[in-house]
Amino acid sequence: MNTIIDAHAHCGIQDQSMPQSFGDYRCQIQGSDIGAVVMFSPVMEIYDRYRPKFEDNAKWQQRRTQSNEYLLTIGSPDLKVIPYFFIWNDFAVDQLNPQHKGIKWHRHPNEPVYHYDDPQCKRAIDEIKRRNMPVVLEEEFENTIFFINELAVGAKVIIPHLGLLNGGYHAFSEKGIWGKPNVYADTALASRHEIEDYINIFGYDRILFGSDFPFGDPKQELSKILKLSIPQEKKEMILEHNLKRLLKNSNT
Ligand SMILES: [Zn+2]
CB–CB of 19/171 below 8 Å? Predict the structure, then answer.
């Protein structure tokens, strides 16, 4: 085994509702073989998720900018950080830095909505596609389908938790979403049953190990993959190679 990469973790120091700094993550993975981690901001550093009618303002823009920038400054020799840029309604792709390897796009039901009809949104999608960056897309079911099938056709999309919080694993199976060559899944908080079903039907090429730290425990999420009754080389695809391949030409 080379380096295990966690493809889904939140990290920040402004939102202190949970321990989620780089140091907190590092502490939690002590003794594991995780050597790199994709990190993006906690939601509460990006927009006010508890006010459905929330519109953007300068204070939140500043908080968001700081949060995205913080991720560019962390990492250590034994734990490499791969920052993703968390985008919101200012669609600030001008803040993308060569270090950013992906995009985080996130909204739950009853949270403020993305302005999909804003021309800046389309512009941002075009830029993300031009840079060949994957988008970790956690949205309501209908919006996820719209994003994949209409708004961002061909963009590389990672649906987190095997769809758990986007409307459910099976709902995406029925729509033929998992079979699309540009759609990936991560295993954070997903059940063993769904992980096994996914690999039986769709194979091992587009499934990534993720923890959803601080909501998921990285070591526990990792043990879920290590315990699967599949060949070692398939585990290594999930734990390392698939993400590396996905990011190879991202934002270069
Ligand atoms: Zn998450």
Answer: no
At 12-66, the pLDDT tens digits run 999 999 999 999 999 999 999 999 999 999 999 999 999 999 999 999 999 999 9
Distances in whole angstroms, Cα of residue 105 to Cα of each of 37, 49, 199 = 18, 13, 25
| Cα(210) to centroid(ligand 1), Å | 9
CA 227 to the chain's CA centroid: 23
Tokens of 223: 């043990």
- For residue 166, pLDDT beyond 90: no
CA-based nearest residue to 166, from 197, 127, 136? 136
Angle, helices 218-226 vs 192-202, to 10°: value is 50
Q: What integer is the mean pLDDT of 74-89?
A: 97
Ligand 1: distance of its center to the CA of 230 in Å? 26
Can you count the helices (H) and strands (E) in the chain?
Answer: 9, 8
